[in-house]
Amino acid sequence: MSYQDRHDVIVIGAGASGLAAATTLHAAGRDVITLEAPGRTGGRLLSAPTSHPGRRFDLGATWFWDGEERVRTLAVRSGLETFPQHLAGDTMIQDTAGIRRLNGNLIDTPSGRFATGAQSIAAALAAALPAGSLRLHAPVTGIHSPGQGSLDVLTPAGTLQAEHVVLAVPPALALERIDFADTLPADVVRLVRATPVWMGATVKVVVQYPSAFWRQDGLAGAAFSRTGPLQEIHDMSGPGGEPAALFGFAHANTVRSGYEHAVTAQLVRLFGPAASSPVALHIQDWSTERWTAPSNVQRLNDYSLFGHPLYQQPSSKGRLHWASTETATEYAGHLEGALAAGERAARAVLAAPASTSDTAHASHPTSHHSAPTISAPRNPLSAP
């Protein structure tokens, strides 16, 4: 069934940045609809269930660090259990000369994690939105400017209209999947086309074990490898070491037939024979996620474009706003950066001059449901 809606703001993307923008705007009394292409919220926040009730393993974003007060405040306000990343123990190094054990954890730094998985942050934000304002399985195919002080948002189910649109998806993905007609200036198109997608060309592998046996051997679960397949490995065990797991990162171009066996064999070489019998093994190849990575994601590598000044300026006569962790000027690539970018876009919408249609539409509030605002530090630290 087709539909035609008109709203103050349409947010495209229900990851951390989109949900941060939507809850901030809703709390300010704006009529906001959030559209999400997949059938779940969270974007690159993705947490897999485990055999331990209530505990999840992160297949996407995992950590938050000191100084990232948006994440910490939201977790506290939402009642989410957090715990520190395990650090104690030695580091394993693997290169062409062999395998060495070095004193201390030389890879990990003090950071926090979520006992129920980082995706619980997205769930908490989504729960604060009014019923019907979050639409899943709703991909956007076009954003056009009809020249009447609004934007048309095209979806397979019909056309929606809004005074403002917040783009809370990776910019390069938006450019590949959405027809912008003439709404984007040439310099913005060039920037968007070249901007990498954080984690877009990354494979994350999580391997669960009956126990954190490496800790008993005085190892931190931390390793660095120049031979692979995993390049960087960390302890992903839950609070108190349960459920027990290791996880590693690799570039998407390393995935081959028999990848699971290759990963297990590497972990055996690094951590001993106990690593040969995992309880479960998860492989998340973000380059294959059609609603995360554009087709050329493995060729995008200029990370200096993150937080570019053009992303801080709305396009289409001030009505099209960029909001994803790639556009953040602080903590870009982190969950904190996603929240910051969503807040920044929401503030830009709220500060925009109201047109006649804005004023008329705002006179019909849709809900008094309260949403949490996300407090930001006055002078946030630079991202680690």
Question: What composes the largest sheet?
Answer: 7 strands, mixed
CATH top level of the largest domain is Alpha Beta
Main structural class: alpha/beta
Shape type: elongated
Instruction: State mean pLDDT (0 to 100 scale).
Output: 91
pLDDT below 50 for ≥5 consecutive residues: which ranges?
A: 356-384
CATH homologous superfamily assignment of the largest domain: FAD/NAD(P)-binding domain
Give the SSE string. Answer: EHEEEHEEEEHEEEEHHEHEEEHEEHH
CATH topology of the largest domain: FAD/NAD(P)-binding domain
Alpha carbon gap, first and last residue: 48 Å
Q: Can you put this structure into words, describing what you see?
A:
It is built from nine helices and 18 strands. With 384 residues, the chain is α/β, with parallel strands linked by helices. It has two domains: 189 residues, FAD/NAD(P)-binding domain (3-Layer(bba) Sandwich); 118 residues, Polyamine Oxidase, Chain A, domain 2, CATH 3.90.660.10. The strands form four sheets. Strands 1, 2, 9, 10, 11, 12 and 18 form a seven-stranded mixed β-sheet that branches. It has a seven-stranded mixed β-sheet with strand order 7-6-14-15-16-13-17. The protein has a two-stranded antiparallel ribbon with strand order 3-4. It is elongated.
